Amino acid sequence: xxxxxxxxxxxxxxxxxxxxxxxxxxxxxxxxxxxxxxxxxxxxxxxxxxxxxxxxxxxxxxxxxxxxxxxxxxxxxxxxxxxxxxxxxxxxxxxxxxxxxxxxxxxxxxxxxxxxxxxxxxxxxxxxxxxxxxxxxxxxxxxxxxxxxxxxxxxxxxxxxxxxxxxxxxxxxxxxxxxxxxxxxxxxxxxxxxxxxxxxxxxxxxxxxxxxxxxxxxxxxxxxxxxxxxxxxxxxxxxxxxxxxxxxxxxxxxxxxxxxxxxxxxxxxxxxxxxxxxxxxxxxxxxxxxxxxxxxxxxxxxxxxxxxxxxxxxxxxxxxxxxxxxxxxxxxxxxxxxxxxxxxxxxxxxxxxxxxxxxxxxxxxxxxxxxxxxxxxxxxxxxxxxxxxxxxxxxxxxxxxxxxxxxxxxxxxxxxxxxxxxxxxxxxxxxxxxxxxxxxxxxxxxxxxxxxxxxxxxxxxxxxxxxxxxxxxxxxxxxxxxxxxxxxxxxxxxxxxxxxxxxxxxxxxxxxxxxxxxxxxxxxxxxxxxxxxx
Length: 534
Known about the structure:
The chain is of the alpha/beta class and 534 residues long. It has two domains: 13-176, no CATH class; 233-518, Aldolase class I (TIM Barrel), CATH 3.20.20. Helix content is 34%, strand content 19%. It has helices at 69-79, 129-139, 181-202, 257-273, 283-287, 292-295, 321-335, 346-351, 362-370, 388-396, 412-420, 423-431, 439-450, 467-475, 485-491, 495-516, 521-524; strands spanning 13-15, 41-44, 47-50, 53-57, 92-94, 106-115, 118-125, 148-153, 156-164, 171-175, 217-219, 236-238, 241-243, 247-249, 277-278, 306-311, 339-344, 377-381, 401-403, 457-461, 480-483, 528-530. Strands 14-21-20-19-18-17-16-15 form an eight-stranded parallel beta sheet. The relative contact order is 0.11. Residues 1-133 have low confidence and may be disordered.
């Protein structure tokens, strides 16, 4: 049995059933010296903090470190600080010696960069900054260049060797086989998706002010509409197809087993209600075919109109134009997609510690891909709002639709701050939680920039929570209203919950149409006004 030292207070670190540990060396001191050589999972008040990645440094002789007490106690203290503690650590890592004595204690590691066969890891204690610096200074000199390492992610081992380690810089680790980098990236990405799902399910992930820019607009009521409920027509033509309502289920997740269930529930509801849906980013499945089946919902729901998803940053960098186009084609073929969305998430990538930093050439690459692509290509912002200049540029490049993706709903930058768990990243994410154009502002700006004769469909996503919100964005010029978080949460409980949520939203839309005397969606635009105009 292992008795873990814990601080006084209501919370206590306990071992999970899956905890494994080796023999614990003890000394004749008042505090037992605890070393963990296989840090897999710990519980805080029965909430699992699951590890993602185990890094084992194989050395002949481990360095002498302070007791694990100063490492475990700060972790427990942080568990009492919800604002600074993620649902699960982003990367929980054990660095251990090859010998039975003096292994490192539990450490945290942040993937700073992954490219050209390198993964840069910052080895740090799970405590405060001074303790982090102290442990890094004691650790790095022991890691000479060429030290063998093994990284284990999702049950797969990756042999590595250290490149550099000093008192000032993160530990640099090189994969022995650089060809394994896409697989490693995909496995880490799958764990990132697990975090996203858990955070979206349990935390407040929306813009703090909940302002999607629609409160300044109202509808002129019609006291005598001279119509009946059955005459209301909510059908909408989008991407060359007719749908029963102007509602799009936007892609939020995928790549893990739980994401498969969520997407299947969304797909069944979308097909039953005659509306389109998108999947989350397919990046990991493109890097590792083992994940491909998780996104394929058409095996069970062949009638759903499905939109694939790939990140704009994944189309540039080291990829040639041919490789980028091939990745898009594979994303479509993988799920038999009816359209492909290319998402632009600069803010999220900036806050995500392992995020992409190079967006050069994205616009020209999108234009080249859209030219002659077998299915319609969409470009979507994901919470910061698409500026009108970019909207006009993309419309002229041949894309079929634009999602303005304004702020007011899910803040992916804030989610990355919660996921990272360190105070600096959380502070940065907090500063940008309400960043960008609101959905209403981005929509009106894009509509005006493109003009009445625009040749692209417009989607308004970001904080759309009711049928009234749907009616407002349609009246302001959107062809479709995208809804993500509320339907994602409904999908956690099954397809019937999603159907019920959709029915409520569509009923709200139809109610607005009845109360304004609007027999069809086009008529709504004649009844909306800015509050200051009346």
